[in-house]
Write a structure and sequence with these properties.
Largest sheet: 5 strands, mixed
Helix content: 40-55%
Strand order of the largest sheet: 5-4-3-6-7
Shape: elongated
Radius of gyration: 23 Å
Oligomer: single chain
């Protein structure tokens, strides 16, 4: 490995530049992130696809680290995580956080190849039984949704969805963009189901005021929300911007209930943001959602508010 000091080494067909040290190597141990045993970042043992993804990602991270001439202790200090976590990630036993991959990308100078793994790694966090959102929504008999930064995909017009997806970075290729729009619109087949599922949405006022896509797209989006609000099975409520003392301040909440009595839900600032299905965990989400609904405008008040907002747009 003596050649590492004079040039790049190829790993898996990709050149890995040698590690050249840096001031962060002498970081104090207490500054390291210690999360090796933090719940919510392990893959389900029966998730074959997820295990395969983590094995591949871990192997690539290890090969690139070794090609850069870095031992685990040195790499751990530079990226700011404990040695135990590095070993677990490289062994495919731990799901790396996005920021871990970002730091590894920077330290190992991987030319975007480590960052490219982030999408699959993000999907691994969701158990295989609830990975396909559209399939879950298609089976749900009841949906509870609070959004604090954007409109739910089931409420979006095609033009709004396209404009919103164009804000992603890195940008989607045109073909990918259209596929994403089509997939989002396909989920709205839920409104044609019979019997219709009960859908409850609480929308933050700011999500209705934000002119995504420009004035014309914004107006059509407001009209679409009003149209959906007329459906017997749909309840839409607005949370005024001056009401802040409620559990939704921490992020989104969503709960899907199924005909067999089971349910699944997630909340941004609970359970590491990971989907949950245990009754005790779901009770927390439903309690939070109930408080949010109580703080919001009624469905009738909300319809009047959105009509007024449309008139001002």
């Amino acid at each position: 490995m003596s050649g590492l000091s004079t040039g790049a080494v190829r790993v898996g067909g990709v050149a890995a530049r040698p590690y050249d040290g840096g001031a962060s190597v002498d970081r104090e141990p207490e500054q390291l992130n210690s999360e090796a045993d933090e719940p919510g970042w392990e893959v389900d043992p029966d998730d074959e696809w997820g295990l395969a993804v983590l094995a591949t990602v871990g192997r690539q991270l290890r090969l690139r680290r070794e090609a850069a001439g870095m031992r685990v202790p040195d790499f751990a200090v530079v990226v700011g995580y404990g040695e135990d976590l590095v070993y677990k990630i490289e062994g495919g036993k731990r799901i790396p956080r996005p920021e871990y991959l970002d730091k590894a990308e920077e330290v190992l100078r991987a030319d975007g190849l480590i960052s490219a793994m982030k999408e699959d790694v993000a999907r691994v966090r969701y158990p295989k039984t609830i990975r396909a959102l559209a399939k879950l929504e298609a089976k749900a008999v009841e949906l509870l949704s609070y959004g604090n930064h954007n409109l739910h995909g089931l409420l979006q017009t095609e033009e709004f969805a396209r404009a919103l997806l164009r804000t992603r970075r890195p940008s989607l290729a045109e073909g990918e963009l259209e596929q994403a729009v089509a997939a989002r619109m396909a989920r709205q087949a839920i409104y044609q189901r019979s019997p219709a599922p009960e859908l409850s949405f609480v929308l933050e006022e700011v999500t209705l005021r934000r002119p995504v896509g420009g004035k014309t797209v914004h107006r059509k989006q407001l009209e679409r929300v009003l149209e959906l609000a007329q459906l017997q099975s749909v309840k839409i409520q607005v949370m005024p911007m001056d009401r802040w003392d409620h559990p939704g301040i921490g992020g989104r909440i969503q709960v899907l209930k199924f005909g067999d009595g089971t349910a699944v839900g997630r909340m941004d600032d609970e359970f590491n943001g990971r989907p949950v299905s245990e009754p005790k965990q779901l009770r927390i989400l439903e309690l939070s959602y109930g408080i949010i609904r109580a703080e919001a405008m009624t469905a009738r008040e909300s319809t009047t508010f959105i009509e007024q907002l449309l008139g001002e747009t």
